[in-house]
Amino acid sequence: MSSSVTLTPAQKAAAILVAMGKPAAGRLLKFFKQDELKALIEAARLLRTIPQAELEKVVEEFEHEFTEGAGLLDSADSMDTILSESLSPEEINILMGRGSPKPVSMEEVWSSLEKVGPERLAQLLEREHSQTVAVILASLAPTVAAKTISLLEKTRRGEIMRRMASMGQITPAVRSLIEKRIADILHAEASGKDASAGQARVARILSELEKPDMDALMQELEEAGSEDVDAIRSRVFAFDDVVHLTQKARVALFDGMPTDVVTLALRNAPRELSEAVLSSLGVRSRRMIESELEVPADDIQNEDIVNARRRIALSAVELAQKGVLELPSAMSAQ
Prior knowledge:
This protein has helices at residues 9-20, 22-29, 34-46, 52-68, 80-86, 89-95, 106-115, 118-125, 130-139, 142-150, 154-166, 172-191, 193-207, 211-223, 229-233, 247-254, 259-266, 271-278, 283-294, 302-321, 328-333. By secondary structure, it is mostly helical.
């Protein structure tokens, strides 16, 4: 079939199902194989508005192939299990014509999504299809979208922006599906907040300890069979871990840190650790601290040194939570 609109077979099938309407399409979907159903869902996400004349040509082609016995459907497969594994109960009900989707306030959905924050939003969107991400970012405030896309993986940015640039008008049906997906994301995010908060509290407590005590408690937590060990480990940081930070992360950590705190923290520190810290400072600050360290300080209490190191460690944890830097424990857990 010649057409000015180039569609894949899956997109043609998706177009026909959309044209049929929910009741008829829902009854047909239960006869598709699992790979066919997934192909249809993917095709529907990428489907753009089709002119009426072109849609009629697609329908005519389908009618011709159907009369020829193209074998598009296979009634031997049961789709109940497949659907339950691939879709939520609400989506199954919609596809099967057993109810209507729960109405969602568009303003509330998008407003709530923007409140998540660019850093967390980027993490949530990493698991979504590029077309879904493109539609979502195109619908957000430019400032939020710009900050979010800058935090996505570099390998995906170009593809997502390409899809945004070539995106036509978003149809109400597609927007409804996207808003439903966003509602699911926000619901999952809200459900996981309690566990995340508890992990953060434990991580903060551990970061208050010296490295040996921290490692010992982490070991005990693991031996106790805690399911949160990896999540907690990715959030903890000790002053000794500065050597494992990237140079960029170290610069961010010590930017604005009082020189007296840094000087105290470096008292009696191993040479490798001292060099890691000093190399992240400006020339003037480094010289000042090195001069201070050359002066014996017998009157300095070990508690003061511990407190200075603790302050730096907690600052690293806070910066990591804001997305400014990534802790080495988080990188090793990936």
